[in-house]
């Protein structure tokens, strides 16, 4: 149980670490883009190899498809709502548009992070933690914390408020990982498969709508290759 809390906290700590880097160091946008592209590839791979494929093997194609599309649809609807409230720039390292909402950025970050944390906890129910998921979530969270912090800093948010934001997300992700382990320990494999595919849909929708556009905008065509490297790395880790 403690391990679920620690692994979830470790993955979520990347937001806090990225926030610290963004506050105190001047990082080139191209570097952020490359890390974001790599994280996108690893996350897509982790969703495919660690969440979708096992679900197809255990529960069949139809439930997997339904869960995946439902998760992607729900994330898209929520993300579209948050976009109107000013959270569409939460992964951007440039100044946010006038009228944006710091609260929306906070909620958007939660929406991005919590399903990932729950999945880490679930992965530990019958076996050891999925290192592919932990690495994927950590790598993807690092540039998010960094990039969002730079944008918030340019919008005159104080260092204290920014650190409070990431500290809160860090704590909540750890708790959600623990909750995924404790609360879902006795549920059927069918329910776990549905949750995994639902989360996978949300993760892929999040990567496609937020991380990949930002990476290409700031990193150029080379991010396609970097994303591919991240994806194949997740496959290697999955079969090791």
From TrEMBL:
The chain crosses the membrane at residues 6-24, 31-49, 61-82, 103-125, 162-184, 190-207, 219-239. It comes from the Bacteria. The keyword Zinc applies. The keyword Cell membrane applies. GO terms for cellular component: plasma membrane. It is a multi-pass membrane protein. Its main location: membrane. Keywords: Cell membrane, Membrane, Transmembrane, Transmembrane helix, Zinc. Coiled coil: none annotated. It is found in: Cell membrane. GO terms for molecular function: zinc ion transmembrane transporter activity. Belongs to the ZIP transporter (TC 2.A.5) family. PANTHER family: ZINC TRANSPORTER ZIP11, ZINC/IRON TRANSPORTER. This is Zinc transporter, ZIP family. The lineage of its organism: Bacteria, Bacillati, Bacillota, Bacilli, Bacillales.
